[in-house]
Specification:
Polyprenyl_synt, Polyprenyl_synt_CS, two-stranded antiparallel ribbon, mainly alpha, Octaprenyl diphosphate synthase, Farnesyl Diphosphate Synthase, EC 2.5.1.90
Length: 322
């Protein structure tokens, strides 16, 4: 079941978001429109815009701006994907060729810029300065998170704290912004705005932790990207960081060397070490703790089917194959 199918009341709104996104990809430059449609229609779950809808509904919002605001969040997310794939030299995402693999790096970066600017055009139409403040801050923090990740690449001395700082910036920040702006749009009490902000942050951390686990467990078909991509890029994610804490000195040296040089030459022995060291279970447990914190934050909201769906999403984030 897709996340948006968890709540029948959300499905018509979710379809309206999809329609809105497609209708706002127009450009006088055909290549911009072509790449925009390709990446937006490439099969993502639209989890972040769904969070906007659920947060707004959970706070009893009755207007229509949550549709356009959901599209803003999806455009920003899509822009980051286009830029990420260029930075990471990725050629596969969601089981399809990346935009940079099909059209090259320069068009991908520029269309990413177009989607960012289109998102801000829509925000101006919504006309809420508090929402603009949250989203403009989020895009800034996301960019910083990506730069931090770049600095940590091929650095085997990256700590768990430094890793967490990266994923809070590059992943959790947009989850946090999505749920917070939904509450702001509904003019919810400050306590509920803060609760939904915290929910989004913890959910985003949990989501990324499981993503990093799956890089060592899933097949390419399940992940929709190349297995071992993080290792190939020399990214010291939590499974590797934890494995280095508990393996022998010789095994630790192998992991360190692999992080420094990148590539998949030592994929099999590294996979074996990550699995035998308990690092997978450690990372999964960390994700479960974050999901629990997300669910706890929802106690500030009134009971509703939308609150229940947000709870279910937190469970789904840590029990998934893709």
């Amino acid at each position: 079941m897709q996340p948006h199918q968890l709540n029948p009341a959300i499905e018509p709104q979710f379809e309206s978001v999809n329609d809105y996104i497609i209708n706002h990809l127009g450009s006088n430059v055909p290549l911009v429109e072509k790449i925009g449609h390709y990446i937006v229609e490439s099969g993502g779950k639209r989890l972040r815009p769904l969070l906007v809808l659920l947060a707004a509904n959970a706070c009893n919002y009755n207007g229509k701006h949550h549709i356009s605001l959901s599209a803003v969040i999806e455009f920003i997310h899509t822009a980051t994907l286009l830029h990420d794939d260029v930075v990471d030299n990725s050629d596969l995402r969601r089981g399809k060729d990346t935009a940079n693999a099909k059209w090259g790096n320069a068009p991908s970066v520029l269309v990413g810029d177009f989607l960012y600017s289109r998102a801000f055009q829509i925000m101006v139409e919504i006309g809420d300065m508090d929402i603009m403040k949250v989203i403009s801050n989020a895009t800034n923090v996301i960019a910083e998170g990506e730069v931090l990740q770049l600095l940590n690449c091929r650095n085997p001395d990256t700590s768990e704290e430094a890793y967490m700082q990266v994923i809070i910036g590059k992943t959790a920040m947009l989850f946090e912004a999505a749920t917070e702006v939904g509450a702001i749009l509904a003019n919810a009490p400050k306590k509920q705005q803060e609760a939904l902000r915290d929910y989004g942050r913890h959910l985003g951390i949990a989501f990324q932790l499981i993503d990093d686990v799956m890089d060592y467990l899933s097949s390419a078909e399940e992940m929709g990207k190349n297995v071992g991509d993080d290792l190939a890029e020399g990214k010291p994610t939590l499974p590797l960081i934890q494995a280095m804490k508990v393996v022998t000195a010789e095994e630790r040296q192998l992991i360190r060397q692999t992080i420094r040089k990148g590539g998949l030459e030592d994929l099999e022995p590294i996979l074996a070490l990550v699995k035998s060291s308990g690092a997978i279970e450690y990372t999964q447990e960390s994700a479960l703790k974050q999901a629990d914190l997300a669910i706890d934050a929802l106690s500030a909201l009134p009971d509703s089917s939308f609150k229940e769906t947000l709870t279910l999403l937190a469970h789904m984030a840590v029990h998934r194959n893709t």
